[in-house]
Design a protein that fits this description.
Chain A is of the alpha/beta class and 429 residues long. Chain A contains 18 helices and ten strands. In chain A, helix 5 packs antiparallel against helix 13, helix 12 crosses helix 17 and helix 13 packs parallel to helix 17. Chain A starts with a strand and ends in a 7-residue tail after the last helix. Chains A and B meet through helix 6, helix 7, helix 9, helix 13 and helix 14 of A and helix 6, helix 7, helix 9, helix 13 and helix 14 of B.
Chain lengths: 429, 429
Amino acid sequence: MPYKHIIDNCFVNRIGAGGVSADCFRRFLAKGSAALSEITGSADQETQAILRIPEQHKDLETIQPVADQLRECCKDLLVVGTGGSSLGARTLCALSQTATPRLWFLENIDPDGVDPIFDNLDPKRTGAVFISKSGSTTETVGLTMIVLEWLLENTSSNAPSERCVAITERGDNPLHDLARGYKFSVLEHDPFIGGRFSVFSSVGLLPAAVAGLDIAAIRQGARELAETCLKDPASAAPVAGASLAAAFADELDISISVLMPYRDRLAGLALWYRQLWAESLGKEGRGTTPVQATGTVDQHSQLQLYLDGPADKWISLVTCPAANTGRTIPADLASEAGQGHLAGKALGDLLDAFSSATAEALAQHGRPVRELRLDALDERSLGALMMHFVLETLITARLWNVNPFGQPAVETGKTLAMSRLAGPKGRLA
Amino acid sequence: MPYKHIIDNCFVNRIGAGGVSADCFRRFLAKGSAALSEITGSADQETQAILRIPEQHKDLETIQPVADQLRECCKDLLVVGTGGSSLGARTLCALSQTATPRLWFLENIDPDGVDPIFDNLDPKRTGAVFISKSGSTTETVGLTMIVLEWLLENTSSNAPSERCVAITERGDNPLHDLARGYKFSVLEHDPFIGGRFSVFSSVGLLPAAVAGLDIAAIRQGARELAETCLKDPASAAPVAGASLAAAFADELDISISVLMPYRDRLAGLALWYRQLWAESLGKEGRGTTPVQATGTVDQHSQLQLYLDGPADKWISLVTCPAANTGRTIPADLASEAGQGHLAGKALGDLLDAFSSATAEALAQHGRPVRELRLDALDERSLGALMMHFVLETLITARLWNVNPFGQPAVETGKTLAMSRLAGPKGRLA
């Protein structure tokens, strides 16, 4: 596997009472393995669609040419979507070092955030991908209409058909209607894969391909991980992770799960994980709260609380060795500053020293911490890691008897917002 | 005051058992008022320095000319600092619409994040502000040396003295040594104001002034807020806020405090708050965990958990009316998409509709929620709001009998990291 799952510092024998006992872990692991078997054997269409998508190849033959076409004609690409329609793609695209097209994620509807983006773009060289499974997410549909109007006003009437793509479910919906009206193409959103599980579908892979990434390698990483799990559930990393998550919550009252990557390019991963975990498990009074952090910056913000606040957290570090990479601290300046121990050290050396020291400090303070250590920061590793978290979430849902799909509670708020928008204009002023 | 503190949806009579009873609130409010009196009457130098700094004027006469000089000679400015040395300035600078100098916050040491910044800058037109209270934060000192070397290699040897400034404590420390060696100026960091309380000092205000903001207005907002508190503690917003925070934690086992601004320019505020709250209160097993979120995007990520997960959260929305601002949804497209109710609505209308609907949905689900509603997104309002959170934190610390200063637990990790860096090079490979 392209990552290591290091869980030693989750156990009583290493960190004391804050850890799980070997007996307890064995019990939960048995349940976790059984849960995985149930999931893989399930006839549920959503579950099967999520498990099977990494094996697919054929749809890549559709996605890649669409991406190539956008790469060719666009200097900038707007990716319009929110929540599960953007977080996965953002996480993947952060890997890319390609300079063009530049990708702009339009996720929010704050005028201060939206207006300046248009001011910086050439409408003749800008394309857009509009993503909404239902095709009716208000923010996305609103922004889609604004983008289309901007293209139509500032360029030829063919612009949408040449440079726009929608990803949405088959059938009648507002986004589909707009695609039909303005003659741009639609990639079908798998009806059985909800937004937060959609990173391995066109939702994640079309933007990734536009960003120049090897999307087959992303699927390959995910596939390898899934296969490993099926082959040997009892020693599969996601099964161990889910079993620990459940053991911590059910036996040790740990209510918070911190994901702290130690690479800037993985900062978005923690936001993607946050949605995956929160929306899948936060139901009927169950769930634990995911918290995102980034190392080392959040050592200077959150670490005091993690080490010495309430013992209500399980901390997952994501690392990828950076030793000997990056700029080097010059020896003469280090000596002038009395920092001889830093002379000749690369920034990556500092990063590695801090991540391993933080893991050790947490363990010394009796706080459970695991490390997911990637071999490399590439498509295959990230695909495997994201599939790890997908499986971990599905297994935990089964352990807690929670339906991981849908987000039923948010309907109240949507209905209230719509009634405000439908009301007399004066109410909004 | 330039903001309203709307707390109705924190009480039993509005949201049911998830809220605080009137009796309970009265009890905590009495303690909170007493705590504020103790704080203002305290002879403790740290407390006094934090309370008094908004009243100062004289130091602005030093800060502003330094900023003007940097504005004049720099196209880009690197702000090198981490944690409390950057989060406050970032939050303030997000208000600015000024295009030059562009500000780059160098907070992390990941080579992937650092290297591309240098590639995009002209060393002849780039300045730097280096910020570390102790002058010895490893990441900051390391980055300082790298920036200095880059300036020296790519421009004249006078570059540091012309375009660099350090903010650090008086006395011998690595940052001071570098300033001496390379002849750049030093603004003294107040020895009694720790990083996370330093936003109203040169730490926050020098970058803000470079970004073209009215730093006197920031202080003015903070001062007005502090004065209001002193005049009438029992009805002051930060006293009510701290009393609620303590009541929720102590009586209702609420362990998580979510700060969710509904404006992109306030996204950084939630990260600043996160540090302030976590490092000040997360001690000796006490504290609650701050979580940052941004509306509306995180409605599509976290809201399901907030509404229907464990009842362990108190949610603070920060809003600022945006009605009638931003691009408008074109009527013809809205009609073609079957979204007539959105025709002619501005993006700001959508934002306001969603923030008030979310507050109502949370209340309907029995989850405590308050709103801090700013009159305007400007220096005075933001100054007042940040002072609100500073006071709320200090009062809560007093209620919980926690020392809000220092972050003693993180020393373990620093020592471990240093021993790794001092060890034989091979250990890092």
